[in-house]
Design goal:
By secondary structure, chain A is mostly helical. Chain A contains 13 helices and 2 strands, in the order ααααααββααααααα. Among the domains of chain A are: 101-224; 228-361 and 372-393, no CATH class. A two-stranded antiparallel sheet of chain A has the order 1-2. The model of chain A has no long low-confidence stretch (mean pLDDT 85). Chain B is α/β, with parallel strands linked by helices. Chain B has one domain: Rossmann fold. Chain B has 6 helices and 6 strands. Chain B has helices at 2-15, 41-54, 86-105, 115-129, 172-176, 178-194, and strands at 25-32, 60-66, 76-81, 133-139, 161-166, 198-202. In chain B, helix 2 packs antiparallel against helix 3. The longest helix of chain B is centred in the middle third of the chain and has 20 residues, at 86-105. The mean pLDDT of chain B is 83. Classes of the chains: A mainly alpha, B alpha/beta. The interface between A and B is medium-sized, with 20 and 22 residues.
Chain lengths: 476, 212
């Protein structure tokens, strides 16, 4: 039904429009209650559905958070166990080494002390013998001078002076000898002091290690007790590990790209420069495969050395097999590095050949010889040889990246779920309010009949007799 | 297990194409050796060397002269399909350049100019090589001059070909009536495009950047 037909119910379009408006308002007024109910039911259903979805997402978020917490605590516990294990191994090694040296140390100290004791005994001052002839001198002095006592005394004096001189000389000699012995004791004292300093250092080292072990043990206990603080620390350190390892991996990717450019060109000489696999050149794929094999060998080498723990199977191998694996992976790496060095040399040769051909085709034959060409050739060969070994160490940041990625992905998922839950909740509320708004908008064109209805109801209430209950006297 | 097999098949299907797509280029260059063009040989040599320097392993290249009867393999001065090893390709390029230089040094002028025969020969050569892109370079003034008895009223199948006219010099008579020159270009263009080919004219030999 077109607009013209609607307007043609009366000869005057304005009147037709008015009639239609009245009819429309009447219809809307009659259907008002049902329409309100429909709007309320629809908005309520959508709102409830969204709130339910929000609740469900919140529940999923909490489950994920719990799981993430478990993963984080598990990883932290494992890492801490490794650290404590290593610390104990170091303490054990130190104790074993020092205790092994202890008999030697004890013997050295006993010898030094024994020598010092002996020297000390030898250096004891011997007291001079008491003068036995003093009484004889007294007796002689009591004799009469006529009986020759004076001569005897003179002789005795002479003898005494002589004896005193000899005694003094002997005493000096003995003192010199004692001093010599005491001087000889000094290096032994120093030996003892040195030995005691060494012991002190070792004990200090053990004490500092024990402090570290204590700290790690406290952290480990916090993890085992599932404390929030431990989770927070682990989470932040996991994020740091993630970004640092990602940065190092980016550097490694740069190295791999350089490596690729070194070997892709000469690879065309081996596998042809015109064959394709899909949309990629076979030579490029071959070069990439070599680099990937090198990285894989590096991973296996690091696993065999027990530096990384990405493959538990390798770590659990018997030591003999593991050592074999180390040698095999290292040999393959060495072989690949040698091949790369050869390819890098070939690249330079090809480049020179191409440059010579281009010069010939451009008509600029006989260009100046570059005397320093060997430097670039050697540098390329060196890079070709060294880069595979450098790529071995990619395993370490890779392991950290993989482990921290789990936590980071968990955190991102939690964030997304939280945002989704909030969005659903807000949308649910929004729909509820939208329902109310829709009711009001529905009522907007019905303002006249609604006003009349309100007026009529007010009049009816005013004329109606008041119920008896309302007229009853109010008693306090 | 079934799912793994399916994915493996999917990956293989993505990597393997039902028919190998030729990605190489085939270039056939026709050099006019008639009297008027004998002096332009050095320029032709420059174009050949330029083309050689831009071709890659597995590309095909042939240089042929336009003479009285050009629909003949005898008119091919040098032809090669480059090896897929870059070092061998370089050696082939050097040998090719040497052959061209020898030809330029002792080329004789031909009495007549059979361009259509040369084009037919070029189309036949490049179709036989089956290269992905096919380009015919015509180094000529495009003035066809057939000897009596040669029938060249033939529609050459240029479908999938790009034909580039190089260094189309103006003849003395063109100076009197340039319409002749324009008509000549128009006639060749129409002939190539009617047969499904693409037509280009490059007269500035110092700017050959987009030639191939």
């Amino acid at each position: 039904m077109s607009m013209n037909v609607l307007l043609a119910i009366t000869p005057w379009p304005a009147i037709s429009i008015l009639i239609w408006i009245v009819v429309l308002v009447a219809v809307l007024y009659l259907a008002r209650h049902t329409a309100h109910q429909a709007i309320r039911t629809a908005s309520g259903a959508i709102s409830r559905g969204l709130r339910l979805a929000s609740h469900s997402v919140s529940h999923a978020e909490s489950r994920l958070a719990e799981r993430n917490r478990e993963v984080l605590l598990g990883a932290g516990r494992e890492a801490k166990e490794r650290i404590i294990e290593r610390e104990f191994a170091r303490v054990g090694e130190t104790v074993r080494k020092d205790l092994a040296n202890y008999p030697h140390l004890h013997r050295g100290l006993s010898d030094a002390i024994g020598r010092i004791e002996k020297d000390h005994q030898d250096a004891v001052e011997m007291p001079p013998e008491p003068p036995g002839w003093v009484r004889a001198v007294e007796t002689v002095s009591k004799l009469d001078a006529k009986n020759g006592g004076g001569d005897v005394l003179a002789d005795i004096h002479k003898s005494i002076v002589k004896a005193h001189k000899e005694a003094m000389e002997a005493y000096r000699e003995a003192s010199t000898e004692r001093h010599e012995l005491l001087r000889a004791m000094m290096p032994r004292w120093r030996d003892v002091q040195q030995l005691l300093t060494d012991v002190d250092k070792k004990v200090e080292s053990l004490l500092s290690r024990s402090v570290g072990v204590d700290r790690h043990m406290q952290e480990y206990e916090a993890i085992v007790k599932r404390e929030d603080k431990a989770v927070s620390v682990l989470s932040s350190s996991s994020l740091v590990h993630f970004f640092v390892s990602a940065l190092v991996l980016l550097v490694a990717i740069g190295g791999a790209a350089i490596n690729f450019s070194l070997i892709a060109r000469p690879m065309a000489e081996m596998v042809g420069g015109t064959s394709f696999i899909g949309i990629f050149k076979t030579a490029d794929i071959a070069a990439l495969v070599i680099i990937m094999v090198e990285i894989s060998m590096g991973l296996f080498l690091m696993e065999s050395l027990r530096i990384t723990r990405l493959f538990p199977v390798i770590g659990a191998l018997p030591d003999k097999m593991r050592v074999r694996m180390i040698w095999i992976t290292f040999s393959i790496l060495l072989l690949l590095a040698s091949i790369e060095a050869g390819l890098a040399y070939m690249r330079e040769v090809l480049l020179q050949d191409e440059l010579a051909t281009s010069a010939l085709l451009r008509g600029t034959e006989g260009t100046v010889e570059n005397g320093f060409l060997w430097i670039t050739t050697a540098a390329q060969m060196g890079m070709g040889f060294v880069l595979p070994f450098a790529l071995v160490f990619v395993a370490i940041p890779l392991e950290t990246f993989v482990h921290s990625l789990r936590t980071v992905l968990g955190l991102i998922a939690i964030g997304v779920l939280r945002a989704l839950s909030l969005l659903l909740r807000v949308s649910g509320n929004g729909f509820r309010h939208l329902g109310t708004l829709a009711e009001r908008i529905y009522d907007l064109p019905l303002f006249l009949p609604l006003w009349l209805e309100a007026k009529w109801l007010a009049n009816g209430r005013a004329t109606a007799p008041m119920p008896v209950e309302e007229l009853r006297e109010v008693t306090p | 297990m079934k799912r793994a097999s399916f994915f493996a098949c999917l990956v293989l299907a993505a990597c393997t194409q039902s028919a190998p797509v030729a990605r190489n280029t085939g270039v056939y260059m026709l050099i006019d050796t008639s009297g008027t063009y004998r002096g332009e040989m050095r320029k032709a040599e420059d174009v050949i060397l330029y083309t050689l320097s831009h071709l890659e392993p597995a590309d095909s290249f042939a240089v042929a002269r336009i003479d009285t009867g050009s629909f003949s393999e005898k008119d091919i001065i040098a032809k090669t399909t480059f090896d897929d090893r870059p070092s061998t390709t370089n050696a082939q390029k050097r040998a090719f350049a040497q052959k061209v230089q020898n030809f330029v040094a002792r080329a004789n002028a031909s009495e007549y100019t059979d361009i259509t025969g040369g084009l037919l020969q070029a189309v036949e050569f490049l179709n036989e090589k089956g290269t992905g892109r096919k380009t015919i370079l015509i180094f000529s003034d495009l003035e066809q001059d057939l000897e009596k008895g040669y029938i060249r009223d033939i529609e050459v199948p240029f479908e999938g070909f790009q034909v580039v006219a190089l260094n189309v010099v103006k003849l003395r008579k063109d100076n009197y009536d340039p319409r002749q020159y324009l008509a000549r270009l128009e006639q060749w263009k129409g002939q190539v495009e009617k047969a499904g080919g693409k037509w280009r004219v490059v007269n500035d030999l110092d700017r050959l950047d987009g030639l191939l």
